[in-house]
Design a protein that fits this description.
This protein has helices at residues 2-10, 17-20, 32-52, 59-68, 73-76, 81-84, 90-108, 113-128, 132-154, 159-174, 179-198. The protein has 199 residues and is an all-alpha fold. 73% of the residues lie in helices and 0% in strands. The protein has one domain: Hypothetical protein af1432 (Orthogonal Bundle), CATH 1.10.3210.
């Protein structure tokens, strides 16, 4: 159990490497734990908004997935797409294999087969992206990236260096089945347009 807790804490000191490869300084880059907290908060908001719209959402399941979704990075670190491009088509496959092996190592540290199985099912559900709850967490993950781009722009980082994140994330959110995520997307896009006009 102690090993699991130590790995959980390690997320506080792990930088999100995708930002580093796009020119964000080590001083300004967010940690994986920063990102995870934001995804959790956004997941809660989206789950509640979808519930108010009349959708049936298991909010506890959403939050459990959000908390666990990047936990394997405590062992693999954050392997960004920028690094994977050097591996060609095998990049995503290698990343997936690494993260699955790390996940198995992490949950074995729980020394509780029932919890390990429950957490692994949640992680598999998130990766599959088929349940509405997993779609909410994926949408929250994308919204967090967009909000982080806005934050970095306000700190003076150039839009061109962050454009890959911005455009790719917009595409993902526009394909999302989570209606409230699309509404938030529109608000963030409008805010970014104002920043460009005044910057």
């Amino acid at each position: 159990m102690l090993a699991f807790l130590q790995n959980l804490r390690r997320l506080k000191t792990l930088p999100r490497s995708g930002w580093l490869s796009h020119g964000v300084s080590m001083q300004d880059v967010e940690s994986v734990a920063d990102h995870t907290f934001s995804v959790c908060a956004l997941s809660l908001l989206l789950a509640d908004l979808e519930t108010k719209r009349g959708a049936k959402v298991d909010v506890e399941r959403v939050l459990r997935m959000a908390i666990l979704h990047d936990l394997s990075e405590s062992l693999t670190f954050d392997i960004s797409k920028a690094y994977l491009q050097y591996l060609g088509r095998k990049g995503e496959e290698i990343k997936s294999e690494l993260e699955h092996a790390a996940w198995s190592q992490l949950v074995s540290g729980l020394k509780n087969p029932t919890l390990a199985r429950e957490y692994t099912l949640l992680q598999s559900e998130y990766e599959g992206g088929d349940s509405f709850e997993s779609k909410i967490v994926h949408a929250a993950d994308s919204l967090d990236i967009m909000l982080q781009v806005v934050d970095y722009r306000q700190k003076g980082y150039s839009g061109s260096s962050l454009a890959e994140f911005w455009k790719g994330t917009i595409k993902e959110l526009k394909r999302s089945d989570v209606a409230s995520a699309k509404k938030i997307l529109a608000l963030v896009e409008a805010h970014e347009r104002k920043l460009r006009q005044h910057g």
